[in-house]
Amino acid sequence: MAIWTLAKKDLRLLLRDTRAAIILLTMPLLFILVLGMALGDPDERLQIFIVDEDAGLPPNPGPFPGKPWSQVVRDDLEKTAGIKVEMISTRQEANRLVQLGKRSCVLVFRPEFSTQVHNCSFLDERFLEGKTGINPFFRDGVDLKVLSIDVIRDEKQALAASIIEQVMQVSLLRVVMPWMIGRAFDKISEKQFIDEMAKRVEVTSFGKSKMKPLALLNDKQRIEVGDGVQLSLEELFKKYNLRAKNWESLTKSEGKASEHQPPSMFTLSAGDRRAQRFQQLVPGYTVMFAFFLVLTVGWLFVAERRQGTLMRLRAAPLSRAQILLGKLLPCFAVSLFQGFFLLLAGRFLFGMKWGSQAYLLIPIVTSTSFAAVGLSLLVASIAKTESQVSIYGSLLVLVLGGLSGCLMPRYLMPEKMQQFSQITPHAWALDAYQELLLPNPQVATVWISCGVLVLFGFALTAVAWLLLKLD
Q: Which of 132, 281, 364, 424 is a plausible cystine mate for 404, CB 3.0–4.6 Å?
């Protein structure tokens, strides 16, 4: 009975400060909302910025592609899910926008771009009517300079610029590679190729003398051999259309993704992308702000110690355990309420999903709050003044939040740092949330994380019990 009396008294004290209670609940929501906005509009696709100075195809280009290669590349980008092409009128305007920091990277197709792409080939000059074939590939992908593409970068936005360059690399690979393969495959049926084979293909006759059987064929027969080689290769590689000059035809994909491939962020709808974003933010800040409880508990104990209330309680017929439990129960209740409130807000305000085993959110929130109460009691046992509570508590919350992955996703950290983060209760709480919010969660992993959080709570409380002085 005495425990509940103390708990109700402290709970009334906590709730008496209405503004503080409102801030405790709304501050995490404000952080989540601001970060969600800072990460961009969920309807906004990745933008590729292009200046097109391409002068068009060279003379006598043949039937393919029928339009400038710069337009082929732009069409490929625009067909790619999640990508939007923005055209900039001139190179001067592109330089101005980059210098002002309004564009991270602009790609400029120089006038000779179509000519360079059209001359890309695997073939030797002998098969290109005296022209020199261009090899646009190198170790890391497509060499933009070889294809006459200039890159205007804002070095202050290096990461965003690198993403745009990599996207262009992939698009050029899809455009140039099929063109080079199709071009080479067409040569197989031509007389010039068979003539080269006739010089090299030798067989041994019964008299052990070597002969060149293809050299005995006339021109018509040689062309028939070339056609037969083409048909044989098509049969051998029937999953691909080697005559094709574009990626869809080469791969016979017709622009369709594999049925077994899970949807990516680019293929999700705008609403789903928004929910996916808050699927990461809400659990992270729910965990971090649960541990802001250290400030509330610390101030509560310091104020009681300064006012002499703790000494009077010690004079009452109450044990040390009853006093601590009576004071920690209301803080534990506030932490539980905050955790469930943020999850409800995430569901109904931000569209996040609770997963297929939503009932497991109860043990996750409960065990996280228990660990937070243990850490709060430890800070309260060390700090002697309100200033010390503010310094120790804020520093501890921010450092553990950054180390555990609450502030920055853990998969972006070095591997050793990811392993080291497991010493924090925050990391185990995040693991439980992230596992539970998967389409097919491993329930055992969730329960293990909850168990570790409970152990954290007991261990921190035990240390605090030894250090805490009630007088």
A: 424
Same domain, 261 and 202: yes
Q: What is the pTM of this model?
A: 0.65
192 Cβ neighbours under 8 A, 6+ residues apart:
126, 127
Identify which of 429, 432, 456, 459 has the alpha carbon closest to the alpha carbon of residue 444: 432
Assess whether pLDDT exceeds 70 at residue 294.
yes
Q: What are residue 50's phi and psi, to 5 degrees? A: -135, 140
Cα atoms in the Cβ-side hemisphere of radius 13 Å centred on 375: 28
Q: Are residues 79 and 220 in the same domain?
A: no
Q: Which of 83-97, 157-171, 240-254, 302-316 has the lowest mean pLDDT?
A: 302-316
How many folded domains does the chain comprise? 3
Which of 265, 292, 314 represents a domain boundary (last residue)? Answer: 265
Share the mean pLDDT of the chain.
80
N-to-C CA span, the chain: 23
Residue 42 confidence (pLDDT): 47
Q: What is the mean predicted confidence (pLDDT) over 66-77?
A: 93
17 and 147 in a single domain? The answer is: no
**Which neighbouring-strand residues pair with 47?**
84
- Is residue 277 within 8 Å of residue 283, measured between CB atoms? no
Residue 114 has pLDDT above 90, yes or no: yes
Cα angle value 273/276/282 (rounded, 5°): 135
Range of the domain at 280: 2-39+267-467
Q: Tokens 């120089």 correspond to what residue?
A: 110
Same domain for 319 and 302 = yes
Pair 128, 218 in one domain: no
